[in-house]
Input
Amino acid sequence: LNVVVLISGTGSNLRALLEAIDDAERTGTPMGARVVAIGADTPEANLALATERGIPTFVVRPRDYENRAAWGDALLQEVQRFTPDLTILSGFMRLVPPAFVEALAPALLNTHPAFLPEFPGAHAVRDAMAAGATQTGATIMIVDNGVDTGPIIEQQRIPIHPEDTEATLHERIKVVERDLLIRTVQGIANGTINLKEIAA
Ligand SMILES: N[C@@H]1O[C@H](COP(=O)(O)O)[C@@H](O)[C@H]1O
Output
């Protein structure tokens, strides 16, 4: 399973996936997945994760294009250069245009730090706390043309502790997100997760 991952920031979930793939290789039970390229919407993203492993990278900045559709087409071209079986938005803080979704879904996933359909959008952790929620979660979904509205593949509930800050809660959510992401890639690679069926 050839995988392209898109990030915008620290990429800690991506790092966990890369390490899980390495560990599986080392222990003689390969995951059957390989990250063949890592892309970003900003040069600020932690692309060192790729260079330190000899994985090709690309950066496609929205501001270098006259509109979102043109940016999306350029991003799609870069992704398709690597003919991925699966593309993952992992902390990729941009909405991808319909043509991008059309070309790649259902083999196009996103990770989200809430128990969807609760708290969609870019401030999910903050919104859960502001709502006074006692629990939130993490979700892996197939990307569609809505904001975090795609078919859900895996999700898990996470309690919110009274002493939590946005940062402590988000870190605990990421621990679960990583586990769900790794399990999802494993399931797609070994055929136990069928994206077409989930998207149907
Ligand atoms: N959109 C959200 O932003 C966070 C990115 O974390 P990282 O993988 O860049 O550390 C993740 O929680 C992701 O769901």
Summary: The helical segments are 12-26, 48-51, 68-80, 98-104, 124-130, 166-190, 195-199. The CA atoms of residues 65 and 71 lie 5 Å apart. Residues 7, 9-14, 90-91, 111-113, 174, 177 surround 5-O-phosphono-beta-D-ribofuranosylamine (CB under 6 Å). The beta strands are 2-7, 34-40, 57-59, 86-89, 108-112, 135-142, 152-159.
